[in-house]
TrEMBL record, chain A:
Gene3D superfamilies per record: P-loop containing nucleotide triphosphate hydrolases, Translation factors
GO cellular component terms given for this protein: cytoplasm
Domain of life: Eukaryota
Family membership: Belongs to the TRAFAC class translation factor GTPase superfamily. Classic translation factor GTPase family. EF-Tu/EF-1A subfamily.
Protein name: Elongation factor 1-alpha
High-level lineage: Eukaryota, Metazoa, Chordata, Craniata, Vertebrata
Keyword set, alphabetical order: Cytoplasm, Elongation factor, GTP-binding, Nucleotide-binding, Protein biosynthesis
SUPFAM superfamilies reported in the protein's UniProt record: EF-Tu/eEF-1alpha/eIF2-gamma C-terminal domain (SSF50465), P-loop containing nucleoside triphosphate hydrolases (SSF52540), Translation proteins (SSF50447)
TrEMBL record, chain B:
Species, as recorded: Mola mola
Domain Elongation factor 1 beta central acidic region eukaryote: 102-126
Translation elongation factor EF1B beta/delta subunit guanine nucleotide exchange domain span: 135-221
Ranges of biased composition (kind: Acidic residues): 88-106
Family: Belongs to the EF-1-beta/EF-1-delta family.
Protein's name in the database: Uncharacterized protein
Record-linked PANTHER family: EF-HAND AND COILED-COIL DOMAIN-CONTAINING FAMILY MEMBER (PTHR11595), ELONGATION FACTOR 1-DELTA ISOFORM X1 (PTHR11595:SF86)
Length: 428, 221
């Protein structure tokens, strides 16, 4: 087995017309994400239809049509390789449930790619009050995506085309609101591109000076691909104690109980004694399997099933967390403090409010027991002690009491288990 | 004679300066005429305007002063001459500041106007474009209870879930381990009509077959 490239999840965000999909498509297209057979098939049918120029746009349309009919199932469609990484693109939909899925879901984004259109009127609309650009960037920040790349798209549609002045205007505007949200604009690469013509990488000769200025002579930073390669790889938390939230528990005839889940931190090995929380059970791992193949060591990110002794299926359930009984086993809590950011909630929130909380795989109603302090979203500085109410846009420390035992962990020690989603807000 | 001959044969270009001058003038005329004169005309005009504005302001001010302090300053006429230039300068300074401010706000206004204009143009363009229905493609993992669950039946159940704006796509069975397989099924939903919670609820209603449902991938179309 050759050395695999580090896997990075990129979430693409931006206003509706910023050209996200086209940019995504072009990246995938250029970096060999579309397999050769399919390309050949498209080329063939394109030639048959007399469109032998075989435009990228046409391919994109075809793929879109395929996806719309639900024909393609492969997530690999949105996967491509750069020099250093294997990247999976998450093309953020406008669907309201997507946010929740991003927070509790399996695919955590490591990097956000904010696409901003520079075309006349589109940039203005994107960053206007009703535009989505700000909201999306805020979302990325709240989701804990600390790395952000800004693509100034549609450079071919500026007046005049590829206008440096326009680029600078957009950069100024975007960096000012990124700063307001909490990002440091100095660390954010801004790349002018054209997702349509594919000129994310070439053309625009005036753009060369920029790279030297920003990265102090570092070779990275001129084209979008180079920027993607310059990102910090996600940290794999192998050396931390094991945490494995259960997704499902199966009963297999002749084998016994098989819980399945994705390892968030640490490693899992046969022979290990596990502690389940909040079920408060211990059990020994007999064997581990992934995709029907036995495993000797399972690492973070692996979705594994494992066979345990002496535990009945009914004693375990989704939402339980497995840990190593010898090394900082997980425990349940009767109450906990959480930092919450209230997004998009119409009314005022007071003590006693009880939203449903989604955290890793669990699903528990929690009560706001105490509003401790209101915080500045960006700096985390305290603004007010014991606020009476919270409204949309506020950040606060809140004491939460779950109605039944649940396992949560500090975001700082076990990030995946510390991210919560409270009905319509989130915490980390 | 000799000396003159010598000079005639000399290759020094005595009147190069004149040619240069002519050349310079020619090129100036060629290029500069349109721009330079325009620019100078523009600047001239703006200067004239500025001066005119300053003058009218000054006149107004003087008129006010004449009316107002007539009693307090009994002999303004002789001093006026001496104070006038100073005043003028002052006035002009003020004027400049005003102008600057004016221009500044003008710029802002203009930028604002431009922005609005662009927004409007965008809205118009948008209105013309047929509104696309936002759709997402969701990949669901549907998990059975054990290795004996009838996956064909399970898939039938899942596909029996019907809703406006929901389209089931292809599916496949993915091995999990110990003989268990999960059903991975794609669906296309209209963003405004179908939510993941609803899907999850509807599918988990078949509790004889389904243990849990997870969203494996969620993408925009």
């Amino acid at each position: 087995m050759g050395k695999e490239k580090v896997h990075v999840n990129v979430v693409i965000i931006g206003h509706v017309d910023s050209g996200k999909s086209t940019t995504t498509g072009h990246l995938v297209y250029k970096c060999g994400g579309i397999d050769q057979r399919r390309l050949e098939r498209f080329a063939f049918s394109a030639a048959q239809m007399g469109k032998s120029s075989f435009k990228f746009a046409w391919v994109l349309d075809k793929l879109k049509a395929e996806r719309e009919r639900g024909i393609t199932i492969d997530i690999s469609l949105l996967q491509f390789n750069t020099q250093k990484y294997t990247m999976t693109i998450i093309d953020a939909p406008g669907h309201r449930d997507f946010i929740k899925n991003m927070i509790t879901g399996t695919s955590q984004a490591d990097v956000a790619l904010l696409v901003v259109s520079s075309a006349k009127g589109e940039y203005e609309a994107g960053v206007s009050r009703s535009g989505q650009t700000r909201e999306h960037a805020l979302l990325a920040y709240t989701l804990g995506v600390k790395q952000i790349i800004v693509c100034i798209n549609k450079m071919d549609l500026t007046e005049p085309p590829y206008s440096q002045k326009r680029f600078e205007e957009v950069v100024r505007g975007v960096s000012s609101f990124l700063k307001k949200i909490g990002y440091d604009p100095a660390t954010v690469p801004f790349v002018p591109i054209s997702g349509w013509t594919g000129e994310n990488m070439i053309a625009m000769p005036w753009f060369q000076g920029w790279k030297a200025r920003r990265r102090e002579g570092n070779a990275s930073g001129r084209t979008l691909l180079e920027v993607l390669d310059s990102i910090q790889p996600p940290v794999r938390t192998i050396n931390k104690p094991l945490r494995l939230p259960l997704q499902d528990v199966y009963k297999i005839g002749g084998i016994g109980t098989v819980p399945v889940g994705k390892i968030e931190t640490g490693i899992l090995k046969p022979g290990m004694t596990l502690m389940f929380s909040p079920a408060k059970l211990t059990a020994e791992v007999k064997s581990i399997e992934m995709h029907h193949q036995g495993l000797e060591t399972a690492l973070p990110g692996h979705n594994v099933g494992f066979n345990i002794k002496n535990v009945a299926v009914k004693n375990l359930r989704r939402g339980d967390v497995a840990g190593n009984a010898q090394q900082d086993p997980p425990s349940d809590v009767s109450s906990f403090e959480a930092q919450v950011i209230i997004l998009n909630h119409p009314g005022k929130l007071k003590v006693g409010y009880s939203p449903v909380l989604d955290c890793h795989t669990t699903h528990v109603t929690c009560r706001f027991a105490e509003l401790k302090e209101k915080l500045d979203r960006r700096t985390g500085k305290k603004l007010e002690d014991q606020p009476q109410t919270l409204i949309s846009g506020d950040a606060a420390t809140v004491k939460l009491v779950p109605i039944k035992p649940m396992c949560v962990e500090s975001f700082f020690t076990y990030p995946p288990l510390g991210k919560l989603y409270l009905c319509c807000y989130l915490c980390c | 004679m000799c000396s003159v001959d010598f000079l005639a044969q000399e290759k020094i270009w005595f009147d190069k300066l004149r040619f240069d001058e002519a050349e310079k003038r020619f090129y100036e005329w060629m290029n500069g005429s349109s721009q330079q004169t325009q620019v100078s005309a523009l600047s001239d005009r703006s200067m004239v305007d500025g001066l005119r504005a300053a003058l009218s302001k000054l006149e107004g001010r003087v008129a006010v002063l004449e009316k107002f302090p007539a009693s307090t300053t009994p002999a303004p006429t002789p001093s006026q001459k001496s104070s006038a230039p100073v005043k003028e300068e002052e006035e002009e300074d003020d004027d400049d500041d005003d102008d600057l401010d004016l221009f500044g706000s003008d710029d802002d206004e203009e930028a604002e106007k431009l922005k609005e204009q662009r927004l409007k143009a965008y809205a118009e363009k948008k209105a013309k474009k047929p509104t696309l229905i936002a759709k997402s493609s969701i990949l669901l993992d549907v998990k059975p209870w054990d290795d004996e669950t009838d996956m064909v039946k399970l898939e039938e159940c899942v596909r029996s879930v019907q809703a406006d704006g929901l389209l089931w796509g292809t599916s496949k069975l993915v091995p999990v381990g110990y003989g268990i397989k999960k059903l991975q099924i794609a669906c296309v939903v209209e963003d405004d009509k179908v939510g993941t919670d609803m899907l999850e609820e509807e599918i988990t209603k078949f509790e004889d077959f389904v243990q849990s449902v997870d969203v494996a991938a969620f993408n925009k179309i």
